[in-house]
Amino acid sequence: MRRIGVFICWCGTNIANTVNIEGVTEAAGKMPSVIYADNYKYMCSEIGQSMIKEAIIKEKLDRVVVAACSPRMHELTFFKTAAAAGLNPYLVEIANIREHCSWVHKDKQEATGKAIALIRTAVAKAARNKELWATQIPVECRALVIGGGIGGIQAALDIADAGFEVDLVERTPSIGGRMAQLDKTFPTLDCSACILTPKMVEVASHHNITLYTFSEVEKVDGFVGNFEATIRKKARSIDLEKCTGCGICWEKCPSRVKSEFDEALVMRKAVYVPFPQAVPNVPVIDRASCRRFTREKCGICRKACPAGAVNYDQEDEVLQKKYGAIVVATGFDILDLDDFGEFSYGKHPDVLTSLEFERLVNSSGPTGGRLLRPSDQSPPKNVVFIQCVGSRDKSRGKPYCSKICCMYSAKHAILLREKYPEAQAYVFYIDIRTAGKDFEEFHRRAVEEYGALYLKGSVGKVFPDGDKLLVKGVDSLSGHAVEIEADMVVLAAAIKAKSDAPQLARLLGISTDTHSFFTEAHPKLRPVEAHTAGIFLAGACQGPKDIPETVSQASGAAAKAIILLSKDNLLSNPCVSEVNESLCTGCLSCIKVCPYGAVAEKTIEEKIHGKALKRRVAEVNEALCQGCGSCTVSCRPGAVNLKGFTNEQIMAEVDAICL
Amino acid sequence: MRFSYYPGCTLKTTAAVLENSALKAARALGIELLEQEEWQCCGAVFPLTVDEIAPFLSSVRSLAAAKDTGEKLVTLCAACHHVLKRANHVMKTDKDVCNKANNYLQLPDQYRGGTEVIHYLELLRDELGFSALAQKVKKPLTGQKIAAFYGCLLLRPPAVMQFDNAENPSIMEDFLRTLGATAVDYPYRTECCGVYLSVQNEEIVAGMVEKIINSALRHGAEAIVDACPLCHYNLLELQQKTTHGKLTLPVYYFTELLEEALGLEDRAEEKMAI
Amino acid sequence: MKITTQSLCGTMVKEIAAISGENVAKCYQCGKCTAACPVNMAMDILPHQVLRFLQLGLVEAVLNCNTIWICASCFTCAGRCPRGVDLPGVMEALRAILLRKRGFSRFKAGDMPRVLNKGMPEQGIVSGFRKYTK
Fold this sequence. Notes:
The complex is a heterotrimer. By secondary structure, chain A is α/β, with parallel strands linked by helices. Helices cover about 30% and strands about 25% of the residues of chain A. Chain A has five domains: about 120 residues, 3-Layer(aba) Sandwich (Rossmann fold); about 160 residues, FAD/NAD(P)-binding domain (3-Layer(bba) Sandwich), CATH 3.50.50.60; about 55 residues, no CATH class; about 160 residues, FAD/NAD(P)-binding domain (3-Layer(bba) Sandwich), CATH 3.50.50.60; about 70 residues, Alpha-Beta Plaits. Chain A is built from 18 helices and 36 strands. In chain A, strands 10-7-6-18-31 form a five-stranded parallel β-sheet. In chain A, strands 20-27-21-22-23 form a five-stranded parallel β-sheet. In chain A, strands 2-1-3-4 form a four-stranded parallel β-sheet, sandwiched between helices. In chain A, β21, α12 and β22 form a beta-alpha-beta unit. Chain A is globular, with a radius of gyration of 31 Å. In chain B, the strands form two sheets. Chain B has a four-stranded parallel β-sheet with strand order 2-1-3-4, sandwiched between helices. Chain B is globular and about 55 Å long. Chain B folds into two domains: about 120 residues, Glutathione S-transferase Yfyf (Class Pi), Chain A, domain 2; about 140 residues, Rossmann fold (3-Layer(aba) Sandwich), CATH 3.40.50.11810. Chain B is α/β, with parallel strands linked by helices. By secondary structure, chain C is mostly helical. Chain C has a single domain, classed as Alpha-helical ferredoxin (Fumarate Reductase Iron-sulfur Protein, Chain B, domain 2, Orthogonal Bundle). Chains in contact: A-B, A-C, B-C. At the A-C interface, β24 and β25 of A face α3 of C.
């Protein structure tokens, strides 16, 4: 006969408002093997935990059921409580009567009935729980950082400074990311390159950091503390060691393609470094546009290179390395504006995205920092900035706020006036959001000192007319439709997740939200961790963010990674599969379904009727098993069982909920 | 190629030229358009009130009749196209309204939005194909600079009409280029002409038309084409109101140009010379 | 101007929602509708203000404005609204409330000859009847 104690939490009013706590407590007290049932306002509080501890000791409880919130939230809390009272934590069962019950129901009577059923189920399972013990697994003391923008750079530097090896993998030829494209940064207007370049150089020279640019992560296996990643170093066609970065190759190269870094405003060569401060300052040959590769002609760069660094025969290199932790910092893209034809973007060269404007005011940009209209290279006098193009737009864009546009548009209005004191900025906005340190003050400066005219309202259409752009909008505060003759229109296009974010999420085994941003483990309390242990998130890949926030999150992710890497061992989850060899028929279907490669075959010797017979059976590697349970359902004779979730336990739950 | 065809009231009267030219061209292109028997007026405007079904029942009858023949339903007048397409969308997506309409009409078979409504332009683009049309052009409109005017009814609301990119359409320009003409791009081609406001507020419409015409002229247009009898009336009649009777930009139905390019009709020389 | 809970959820507000099938609370007053409207110059209350008045429960003011009769149902606003508000439907509901009253009509049979003489196509005349009478 078990001695089970049931503890019911009110969760303040979260559960108590929808579930009759007293009724549930009374019903629980009458369940088989339950000898103690009690409730408390906050079971997770110190007082609530003491209640459980005291009852375990006083009532000699050998199983505990806590009816409260999701086990995601507090299973570990109650495991620790039980352990402190000398009870093996795996003898504790959680009945989720909040997320699965009170939060999703309105009718108190029905919710109470459901809560009782959920507790009955947990009691039935708890009665069959066995003591389990975690084992130790070693940690690979190296981190992988995916993405070489400011988020990835910061995370890599922090982890490396803590004394751990870091591999930083960047898909494009240089690290730097979006921040490298920017001119100045709000709210202080310091030059983006001036504060970013030193960090890029530090990454390249740090003894603990190995930089893989023009490389991609292709596969990730394993689990927290023991990931194994496959990294493809794409053929650069230039020898990294021999190249001096002299630039003769791209001077001589005859092929021209649109520059990704300059937002297609100018052309680059087929052999190129994306921007002058690139790290590494070694070009790559873009084989898709190089004549040598497309038409098997040319070879000028090889002839011209004084260092003999050009190598057309270079092949992709594939590396396999082990890591204890992974930081994902893959950044963002901006929304494609095809559905927003009323702004004439793509039809008129002087209608630009904010990122294009950023390149046009950048001293290393296509105009050398002189802000000129792409149509006729003349300085603009009237510039209209339009906010929320695709942001907060559930019809054609994204329903969320892109968060950075209010601030960078204020910055652009200031930069315009700094370049041309006579020029006038007009900013159409829906709401101004300046919730950051010194942000509101910065915005007010744009209005009061730099004379930007803010109009609360939207733009209906931009009518290209001669060399002007007629902007028809509304100033809703005065209640007038307005027309502005502009020389340039700048659209604050929404931020969106990278289009291949879902693929990366699948590869890493982490989740994404409906907009393909990576989801954090908890929106408030675990904002830098992914749902999968050992994987951390930094920057705009998790949601729109500015630079200070990205850097903070990156340092947070780095700290989490460092905590993990500084452990010699991790406690493994004891809820792993085991094979009952006497039942196993050796069909090995479990090997086929195991996503972790944790099941293998082995041969055992048995004595049957005095004869020694050899037989094939399955064997589980407990270090690799993640406890997903796929093998148990594939096993026809029922020889595989998941500890803590045995077939017997699950069936008892089903019986309890159905009866 | 055989299709059901819904003409609508205006095409039998004031806009007979639109229908005549379209049917003549269709015959020349080997497209059979079977006029529906006993078709009823579509109502000219789509009823936007959701608490009554009576205003669009006549559209449902035509849609159901087309379904019985199993053919796509071709429309020509932009207003009829708009109303039929939207009524069909409601029948397809709003179960409640669909049930009410079926109960009321007592059709032999329940109608649940199964007919596909296509506009004559879509017929040329998607069923015949512009490249096949190009083969049939006998008198290409080479050198003619023509502005397409889309108006509202074919394009909006975009989610239901699904005619083309609503803010940056190209079907009419592609059509004009197929006929050998030069399509003039101008920013007012998808603006509203003022529609039925000309019944009561002619001066408002005249102002709107003036902007459209002037924009097309500034971008070098020698003529403007449309697909809607009411746009046609506004662009033609109210244009002259602001110019004191002078027609600065000739207005044609798109089918008139088609007829000419196929060598079926000569537009009078003086017509172009205005 | 006094705002009360009664005026915010009065019967007229509910009637407009029932006829249009639209929830005016979806509007966040960006003004896109007004900016896009090709006839805003002739309106006494701008399109975004119509929605704001309705959010405030000021139905009478909206029923008495000329805006609802100037709106051409061109759907430019609806196609561009970031919140997916069917403003043409709301305008139609406002017109319907008036047109459904006995004796209310903005277009009478006597007006017909004037329009017909101009060569107005049937499409326009029927539209006029549908939009201005019941």
